[in-house]
């Protein structure tokens, strides 16, 4: 039995609409796949430096560090480690190992909460270990593609063994960090943090760093920086200040 003409017309229209809907759906899926931003990646770098002298004195100083960071949605995570070893006339002059991790949770585009952990071993300063756990609030005073300046403040606790004695005390961590892209190939950074003991303000530590990184190509760079640690209550027979100038080669991956 043949289908009436008006029914065939309706059937053909429905088939055409179904096919057209499928085409539109496929194109929408393809457009979504193209416009979606790629997932955030880790940005990592490593650097190493070696200094040798021979003659009236024989010295060797080896430094190395590695750092990585990731930013996604309202989260920022940074991890890093560095170490130094040196000898002068066969006597150990430097032996440090340091690591840190910091997580920031953005409340707004500029305000955030944070949790941070630092660990240090410094044989020459007679610090067997110093572990600092801190939390707090932070704010980006400047935040754009080439520059940022942020400050952080919050309570913390220090666990340390220095000069053969162990101690645990509360601290108030106050810090700031500045980074600026000077040119397409050169970056400047600077940071300072102060860690006083709550209840004994004469016992405090200041950590500071300033440096510049100049790219050779997309992967390799030349890096020079100065690190300064001031301990107002050092171990017996140890100096208050430790300054380290480092020059080396960096690699991004």
Explain what the structure shows.
This protein is mainly beta and 253 residues long. It is built from one helix and twelve strands; from the N terminus they run H-E-E-E-E-E-E-E-E-E-E-E-E. The radius of gyration is 28 Å and the shape is globular. The mean pLDDT is 89. The chain folds into two domains: 1-36; 43-252, monomeric porin ompg (Porin).
State the main characteristics.
mainly beta, Porin, 253 residues, twelve-stranded antiparallel barrel, 2 domains
Brief summary:
The chain has 253 residues and is mainly beta. The protein folds into two domains: 1-36; 43-252, Porin (Beta Barrel), CATH 2.40.160.40. The chain has one helix at 5-35; strands at 43-53, 59-72, 75-88, 91-106, 111-122, 127-143, 147-162, 165-181, 186-197, 200-215, 220-231, 241-252.
């Amino acid at each position: 039995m043949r289908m009436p003409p008006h029914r065939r017309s309706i059937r053909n229209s429905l088939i055409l609409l179904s096919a057209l809907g499928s085409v539109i759906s496929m194109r929408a899926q393809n457009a979504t796949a193209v416009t979606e931003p790629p997932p955030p990646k880790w940005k990592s770098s490593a650097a190493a430096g070696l200094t040798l002298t021979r003659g009236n004195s024989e010295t060797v100083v080896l430094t190395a560090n590695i750092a990585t960071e990731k930013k996604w949605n309202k989260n920022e995570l940074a991890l890093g480690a560095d170490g130094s070893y040196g000898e002068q006339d066969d006597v150990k002059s430097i032996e440090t190992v340091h690591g840190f991790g910091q997580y920031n949770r953005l409340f707004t585009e500029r305000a955030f909460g944070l949790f941070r952990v630092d660990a240090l071993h410094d044989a020459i300063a007679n610090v067997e270990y110093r572990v600092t756990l801190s939390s707090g609030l932070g704010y980006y005073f400047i935040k754009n593609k080439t520059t940022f300046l942020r400050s952080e403040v919050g309570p913390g606790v220090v666990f340390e063994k220095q000069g053969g004695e162990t101690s645990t005390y509360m601290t108030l961590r106050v810090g700031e960090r500045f980074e600026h892209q000077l040119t397409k190939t050169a970056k400047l950074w600077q940071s300072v943090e102060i860690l006083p003991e709550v209840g004994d303000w004469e016992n405090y530590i200041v950590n500071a760093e300033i440096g510049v990184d100049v790219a050779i190509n997309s992967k390799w760079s030349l890096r020079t920086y100065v690190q300064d640690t001031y301990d107002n209550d050092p171990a017996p027979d140890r100096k208050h200040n430790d300054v380290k100038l480092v020059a080396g080669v960096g690699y991004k991956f």
